[in-house]
Amino acid sequence: MTTGVHLPGGQSPEGPDDDGAGAGAGLQEPHNETRTRSSVITARAAATFEPVGRSVATARSFVRDTLQGWGLADIADDAVVLTSELVTNAVVHAGTSAEVLCLRAPDGVRVEVADRYPEREVPVQHAPVDMGSPDSEGGRGLQLCAALATRWGVEYSPTHKQVWFQLTSPERPVGARTAGPPLPVNLLPLADGRVRVAVVQIDRTGALTAWNEDAEELFGYPEEQVIGKPLTDFAAWPHTPGTSTGVADALRLSRWEGSYGIRSASGRVVPVYASHLRVRDADGDPSTVCLLVRDHERAVLQTPLRQPSSDPAVASDGRTADPFEVFIGSPAPDDLDGLLQRTVERARDMLDGDAAFLLLATDDETELEVRASTGLPSARQRFARVPVEAGHGRFGTARMPAVHEDLSVVHGAVPLLDGTGMRSVVTVPLKVEGRLTGSLGVAAESPARYSNEEALRLQFAADRIALAVESARLGELERLRRGSLSFLVEASDLLAGTLDRDQTLALMAQMTVPTLATWCAVYTIADQSSEPYLSYVLHEDEERIDGLKELLATIDPPDPVPTPGARIWAAPAEQAHQAALRTSLRSIDLGEPATVSSGIATTLHTASAVGGETVVLPLVARNRVIGMLTLGKPSDDHFRQEILELAEDLSRRAALALDNARLYSERTAISQSLQRSLLPPELPDVPGVEVEVIYRAAGEGNEVGGDFYDIFPISDGAYGFAIGDVCGTGPEAAAVTGLARHALRLLAREGFGGPAVLERLNAAILDEGARSRFLTLLYGELWPQADGGALLKVVCAGHPLPLRLRQDGTVSPAAEPQPLLGVMEDLDLYEQTVTLDPGDVLLCVTDGVTERREGTRMLGDDGLADVLTTCTGLTAGAVAARILRAVERFASDAPSDDMAILTMRVPEPPQD
């Protein structure tokens, strides 16, 4: 890949007058009205990618890094997806290099992808435009351009075809998270004189550490009187309805807003509106900063602005203002969660409730998902799902307004409020064009708080806010969909990049944690008769992994159900709850609940880690369940439906990758087992002769090699040896290898001489018919001599000639070449006699040694002889090792052919 540089003002490295796109880009400025003008280009980056598959992933990384470096993270996902498709078209389908140019403009970015195959037609028909099926391979990149890009187009030149697209950055207020329009003076909130903001700070023990002058003015306590005392000594809790959370609980939250009372020095309760923010200092110690104003001045801290009371506002012209105008008309936050949270807080305040909640409907309108709440344990309720039709009658459906005067009388009428202490509740539907999109409710701790009048007020507000909520929800879904598409593209690349089973399992877990879940466990199934096995566990907190493994090991694995989709698995949360309960009781029995042991603390720590919702997704590949992907949340959290759908897409890809890894591992194991069976398990001990063999198989271990060797006893002190090479690899070559090795042993032990053995082997190979392969073979018989030498009779049938090294360093062939086996029926073979004196070495190799290449150079027989001349005085093992090192050093690339090296040496007699 050739990468360009980032330049301000659109200048290239060649100079301001150069119209190139930067180093490595090679693109010309197209003269097109839709193109981003160079005069407004603020930065550019370019790169060229070679026509290989890995370039697609590299191009995605280049575009993502570029856009994030320019601060355009909002549109990076879309740009990555489009670039991926267009670069794939260039390097895979067109088979040329791809040139990518990123141009930054004030309002967004333009990305151009060019290839060098301009003759290749764009799969688009004109009048009308038809891009074919979304499942077809051709034209999919242009379909995505049409769907995601602000503008796009195709340009041709004599040497290039270029596809470009523009993405516009979303507009955002500068310098603020939310902003509101100017309001008339009569609509501004009231303040009695100077607004005083008390700033207090509370340490991790709940004691006050800071108390400013406004706090002293509001509550009458001087700083020295309150510092070091708990805030609970001064708080009257709760002062106003709407909070069921205690002071200690609120101070532990990362952020909290609400109303309560502070007992002043005079003894009266001062109603305040408070905003809490939890921070930590440089040493890591947490504390809470509280801002407090008088309750009727809450608009100072609460955003956006609201009327100080629920009474209708009176305009300057005497008209009664709409009581919901400020509720609806305030500028919405720039994210869905902020809008929903503001909505429930305003609904609670509007009806003077203790709690409020807002649920959004799923696409099929059968379930509602909790998305925002106030005054409720939100950690337990967020993303929980409840059915739309919960019972009989108008009180059991979310499609109609409903008022429950006392929930203690009708148990389970509103499951969301079970166990919260709420007694009365009013709920209304959110509808857009007659379709249910959600439900809004307000609850109180006292019974009979609400009537039909409050239901009508809440329904009026819901009708006003429903369209804004639905629009924000659809916007969030679109962003999530685009992010999901980019996530799945990256996941597919990672999973396709390995065929190792363990690495595939690790990738599956790492892609889900923490992006989709807090923890993940993968169960695998070896075959239909096997039980699921816990193969991999990962938690976002590494210290919890071991405890999570131990907990899951005590639970029966989930059933391997092939039904697609996620299903709830309650066993981990139940087991965690039971383990925490048993541990707590045991610690109490021991009398030291806080410090009894680290084991108890670890158990409680682990239990909290899996206390939320757990789902199981089947891993189905080739119509068989090969495992389960288990995802979990902590502390009663729930999964969003969109996350579960993304996890389901990921599980399908992961299942196929895992099954491919399994098949590859099985094939490799079979090949390696077969290869071992074609070689002798061990070398015999030949008296008076040193024997050494080195065998190196080429490739990744999934192919059976055609090279083989053998040394075996015949009879009466004679030994047979052979080294051969079958043409090709794979099962056909393995069949000939096995035939040759076993036939040699059998025929030699029947008393046949070397030529007769090879002639019969040649006939057996020819009998294989179309499956036969030709074979080069060096076969010999060895007789150790009493005088310290060795007598050999050898036949070299088309094989590289054996080399003899004498003590004086001379090297010469030890046999003459003869016809190879498996080609002709009638062979006239003969054997030659070789005598090895003490200190002599006989070297036999396969052609993987002599044909070792580096470019146009080849080691050859002469090169091998040169290396052997340097081996005088070495043992047989040292000679074989030196030959192997010389072969490996001859070329930098990995060997492309199998190698077998057989050395035999007659040792010199010991010196007296």
Specify the overall morphology.
elongated
Could you tell me the number of beta strands?
Answer: 37
Radius of gyration: 40 Å
Report low-confidence residues grouped into runs of 5 or more: 2-38, 122-138, 173-180, 239-244, 303-332, 592-598
The chain-level structural class is: alpha+beta
- Tally the helices: 20
The overall average pLDDT, rounded, is 78
Helix content: 25-40%
Strand content: 15-25%
From the N-terminal CA to the C-terminal CA, the straight-line distance is: 68 Å
Domain PAS: 199-229
GO molecular function: phosphatase activity
Protein name: PAS domain-containing protein
Region (Disordered): 1-39
Topology:
Blueprint: E1 2-3, E2 7-8, E3 43-49, H1 54-69, H2 76-94, E4 98-105, E5 108-115, H3 140-148, E6 151-156, E7 161-168, E8 198-203, E9 208-211, H4 213-219, H5 223-226, E10 235-236, H6 247-252, E11 255-263, E12 269-280, E13 286-294, H7 325-329, H8 336-350, E14 355-361, E15 367-374, H9 378-381, E16 385-387, E17 402-404, E18 424-432, E19 435-444, H10 452-496, H11 501-512, E20 519-524, E21 533-539, H12 545-553, E22 567-568, H13 571-590, H14 598-609, E23 614-621, E24 624-632, H15 641-677, E25 690-696, E26 707-713, E27 719-726, H16 731-749, H17 754-766, E28 775-784, E29 790-797, E30 803-805, E31 811-813, E32 817-818, E33 832-836, E34 841-845, H18 847-850, E35 853-854, E36 857-858, H19 860-868, H20 876-890, E37 899-905
Parallel strand pairs: 29-32
Antiparallel strand pairs: 1-3, 2-3, 3-4, 4-5, 5-7, 6-7, 8-9, 8-13, 10-11, 11-12, 12-13, 14-15, 14-19, 15-16, 17-18, 18-19, 20-21, 20-24, 22-23, 23-24, 25-37, 26-27, 27-28, 28-29, 29-33, 30-31, 30-34, 34-37, 35-36
